[in-house]
Amino acid sequence: MTKMIKNEKTGGDEHGKHVLRFTINKNEFEWEHQYITGAEIRNLGNIPPEEELFLAIKRPWEDEKIDNEIKVDLARPEVEHFISKPRTIRLIINGREKPWDKEKINYEQVVILAFGTYDNNPNIVYTVTYDRGPHENKEGTMVKGSQVITKNKMVFNVTATNRS
């Protein structure tokens, strides 16, 4: 769906269809349906996956996070304003909070956050477990080459064992 030209008198476009107005990062859009999904908003606004999407809410309330599968009702009384923000979360790695700004994290990245470096020595074995993850991966164990979707306050425990 692309931007459409609206007839201000009828509330419809040049073909008489009713359209609903909203903004994405201050750019105006119009939509022919009552509902729009987070994925459709992301597509229209060219919002990259490393950014989070929110429905702007007037203060003192917090903006509402809109995931891809969420449907938003555009027929409410006011114009909806959607904004994207860089994804910044805090992971808890070995009991310490670490900033993270990506949707996913791989095995090696977790080890680097835990120890400052990743040693590819075959005599060093890293054990990585996680808990409090998103519904796609709530808890489990990571192995070399694996990755998981991250979530704020997700907990990782990393140990290094030397086989020598």
Description:
By secondary structure, the chain is mainly beta. The protein folds into two domains: 6-86, Ribosomal Protein L25, Chain P (Beta Barrel); 89-162. It is 10% helix and 42% strand. The chain has a five-stranded mixed β-sheet, with helices on one face.
Structure at a glance:
The chain is mainly β and 164 residues long. Helices cover 10% and strands 42% of the residues. A hairpin with a 2-residue loop joins strand 3 (20-24) and strand 4.
Q: How would you sum up the global shape?
A: elongated
The run of helices and strands is EEEEEHEEEEEEEHEEEE
The end-to-end distance, rounded to whole angstroms, is: 60 Å
Instruction: Determine the number of helices (DSSP H or I, runs of at least 4 residues).
Output: 2
CATH class bucket of the largest domain: Mainly Beta
Largest sheet, strands/sense/barrel: 5 strands, mixed
Cross-sheet strand order for the largest sheet: 4-3-9-6-7
Proportion of beta-strand residues? 35-45%
Question: What proportion of the residues is helical, as a percent range?
Answer: 10-25%
> Quick check: average pLDDT?
89
Q: What is the count of structural domains?
A: 2
Main attributes?
five-stranded mixed beta sheet, single chain, Ribosomal Protein L25, Chain P, 2 helices, 2 domains, 164 residues, mainly beta
